[in-house]
């Protein structure tokens, strides 16, 4: 008869094999660029040769256009002081912007940064990205909301899991190829998510990148910010108040 200890050990071994099925990617730094240490980075994307970034904190939230090579802020729009800015995403010629707990989002003209609309939603706003057809929104839970840009209504929810276990704390989002990349808040990891099934296809382990940026671990300077240059296939990452932004290449461990 199999003992309870043996069965427990067998279950643990099987679990480890399943866990190992999800690949883990390391990284190599290809280029390093300056980043504004006053930017409490919440959202990031790359378009037409420049970065667009949203920053958080009450009284300091903004959306901005940033020169990649120098980190210089080329254009900036401040949010009202009672809003804590969160993720942003482009859709057409507009930028969609979330706030944290106000249940309020804004729509800006991508060229002028003039506000051209607003929208509401239930719960918190964290990260936002787009595949060019739909918007995808995180709220700190294990679910990503799929939004209709025309109405901002929720079309469906993606339950994100790794080996069947829900993955919470999904923060900044970026559409990369046919996947959603998501920062896991207060960790050094990015999840590569299948947008249809919600399964985590891989983990990106960015351990040590904060040290290369010259920051100490802490809630106010965690890894956050992913941008993808689809034309040149460049992946950029940074963190809150980091002095550096990195272009990285992924390496499978």
TrEMBL record:
Task: Classify the source by domain of life.
Answer: Bacteria
**GO terms, molecular function:** glutaminyl-peptide cyclotransferase activity
Q: Which SUPFAM superfamilies match?
A: YVTN repeat-like/Quinoprotein amine dehydrogenase (SSF50969)
Q: Which UniProt keywords apply?
A: Signal, Transferase
Signal peptide range in chain numbering: 1-20
**Record-linked Gene3D superfamilies:** YVTN repeat-like/Quinoprotein amine dehydrogenase
What protein does this entry describe? Glutaminyl-peptide cyclotransferase
- Species this chain originates from: Pseudoduganella lutea
